[in-house]
Amino acid sequence: MPSTPNSTTEFNNPTLEILITAGQLQKRIGEMGAEITRDYAGRRPELICVLKGAVLFMSDLMRAIDLNLSIDFIAVSSYGKGKNSTGEVRIVKDLDEPLEGRDIILVEDILDTGLTLSYLVNNFRSRGATSIRIVTLLNKPERRKVEVTPDYCGFNIPDKFVVGYGLDYAERYRNLPYIGVVKE
Ligand code: 5GP
Prior knowledge:
alpha/beta; 29% strand; three-stranded antiparallel sheet; 4 helices; 9 strands; globular; single chain; binds guanosine-5'-monophosphate
């Protein structure tokens, strides 16, 4: 028998504690999609996914939004992340389409210090977007260094390093359908 990727061992990983189950994620994303659908009725928003972590959230969220929308992707890297964060952000993959005149919904996996999103919001403003709102699946309010308030937020979580559902630890765990905390 060929071995299957994503074995049961990975999905029920003994080194992880489940923080938010797959069911809880899907239920909340359904609610967020319905809220965005109501708020943007009659408009054609552009959803911009911040790679790579937000990719699973983006794909579920966009299916929960009943509007004529478009999507784009951006990838950033930050200098000196962690203790020595400089707050400097660099775009490593830029958008394919111009932002002028568009209603932008920035889709992020987790709002931590706020440095990434504050950079992106300023950058998108300077490109002439009509409006910019932030939707984040997870939010760690205690960790904020610059003021950024999400317009839509899935879950407020404590100051713990989380993985799964797009989020990685050294590129691992992104494929888990739930959010977990790596055990010490
Ligand atoms: P910020 O600029 O808000 O500090 O950083 C946001 C980015 O930091 C997220 O998009 C994510 O890549 C990373 N990040 C922050 N907290 C966590 C966490 O608990 N787990 C993982 N895997 N990444 C995190």
